Automatic annotation (TrEMBL):
The keyword Nucleus does not apply. The keyword Transport does not apply. It comes from Gymnopilus dilepis. Keywords: Membrane, Transmembrane, Transmembrane helix. Signal peptide: none annotated. PROSITE patterns: PROKAR_LIPOPROTEIN. This is G-protein coupled receptors family 1 profile domain-containing protein. The chain crosses the membrane at residues 15-38, 50-69, 89-110, 130-153, 173-197, 218-237, 249-268. The lineage of its organism: Eukaryota, Fungi, Dikarya, Basidiomycota, Agaricomycotina.
Length: 275
């Protein structure tokens, strides 16, 4: 594997490293505050899949910041157990966030269908539980597989270079599994978003009368954009062996971008509708 340490000065490497850590930390803090406000506020009502979606990005940020939290961010040879744990978590984080996004969009689709049919379902506990819990089962499965692989082949676990703020694996199987999982989750997500937009357009009068059409349309449009962006990042993640400092910065900014997106949705949406 090519060594980029000689290509960048120590100061530039540290700049990329600290930039990645800062972006992830800001995103983590923002999502945590937003989640806390939504949980304690009596005037805000959100569906459980919304909370699961926000929490999945918190898990993702923590995964990428594990070396930072352990005080090993500038250590090229962190403890093996720590490095293995982080490597397993960063490969399972993308499937988790993709699956939680799909769960959220599925719930929005069902809610819109209920409005069109003038029928609000009250007994949906089982469906909601499945939508919230399923992404975390996927996360646990990928994490476990990566841990087993790392324990069987310790040499595959590495900290590639200083500007890369996380440990990964030389073996390409975890990366490919993670990327394929993301694509498999986001393709139906994008398809559902198209169906939602079509339903909104077809039944515009219904939603206009309920005064929620604008916020719903904006949310679906924004999620569509970031869903497509996540697919592109996933494909890049799968197709390249070496992750450049620029790609690391993009990956680190994902949580911050989603925080800003959700914050915008949070501000423009009705506090009385559980999306």
């Amino acid at each position: 594997m090519p060594n980029r340490i000689g290509e960048l000065s120590n100061g530039v490497q540290l700049l990329f490293l600290r930039t990645c850590a800062a972006l992830s930390t800001i995103g983590l803090t923002g999502c945590s505050i937003l989640l806390g406000i939504a949980m304690i506020s009596k005037s805000v009502h959100r569906h459980s899949t919304w909370f699961g979606f926000i929490f999945s990005w918190i898990v993702s940020s923590v995964s990428y910041l594990l070396l930072f939290f352990a005080g090993q961010l500038e250590n090229l040879n962190p403890p093996f157990n720590l490095c293995l744990t982080q490597a397993a978590l960063i490969y399972s984080a993308p499937p988790l966030t993709a699956a939680s996004t799909l769960s959220l969009i599925v719930q929005v689709y069902f809610n819109i269908c209920d409005i069109i049919c003038n029928q609000m379902r009250r007994k949906e506990d089982v469906r909601s539980m499945i939508l919230v819990v399923a992404p975390y089962f996927l996360h646990a499965a990928v994490t476990t597989g990566c841990l087993v692989l790392g324990l069987k082949i310790p040499s595959t676990v590495q900290r590639e270079d200083l500007e890369t703020p996380y440990c990964n694996m030389v073996n390409r199987v975890p990366s490919k599994i993670a990327s394929i999982s993301v694509v498999l989750m986001l393709v139906p997500t994008l398809c559902l978003e198209v169906l939602i937009l079509r339903k909104l357009r077809k039944h515009w009068t219904i939603f206009r009368n309920q005064k929620i059409s604008l916020s719903t349309t904006l949310r679906v449009t924004i999620f569509s954009f970031f869903g497509a962006l996540a697919v592109v990042i996933s494909l890049i993640f799968a197709s390249t062996k070496d992750r450049s400092p620029e790609l690391n910065v993009i990956i680190s900014s994902c949580t911050l971008s989603h925080f800003l997106t959700v914050l915008a949705n949070y501000m423009i949406s009705s506090t009385q509708y559980p999306w």
